[in-house]
Write a structure and sequence with these properties.
Elements (H helix, E strand, L loop, with lengths): L25 H16 L4 E3 L9 E5 L12 E13 L2 E6 L7 E6 L2 E7 L5 E7 L1 H13 L10 H22 L1
Antiparallel strand pairs: 1-2, 2-3, 3-6, 4-5, 6-7
Amino acid sequence: MTYNIRTWPDKILKQKMKEVDFFSDKKLKEYVDVMFQKMYELDGVGLAANQIGIPYQIIVIDTTAREEEENKGVKLVLINPRIIEKEGEIESVEGCLSFPGVQITIPRAEKVKVKAKDIDGNDIEIEGKDFLSVVLQHEIDHINGIPFINYLPPVKKRMVLERYMKNRKKETSKAR
């Protein structure tokens, strides 16, 4: 099967994904491998499974190439993740592989604590601050069917979506 990045308005990006309950299955490892491969190919730092058409609550994150020297990055696989604590607020400038060309500034929690399972089904807790906090929130929102544009006020959201769809239409007609 080919896993291509799904772009807005693909309906899988608007749906809450199913929980993973097949930890000893080699299919889970295949999904995770494909997700890392696709994320690196597209120069991303995080990817949610539904962004490439996999309907499960799986996210992969690798901030090692983006973090500053004093803040070593992390490489994570989180299955069925959920945010259990939020603290503080920061303004975050974000882009998204499913919204090519869109960059917006939105509010995010400065710190989060996330409960999840690892690839073997073990319970884990991750704490993220600043950049990692933003990536965790962004990707967990994806598997819950919440696009980052939902954090914009309605008028600004409509303007961003109109411009995005107009640009998409141009790109599609150029490709023909």
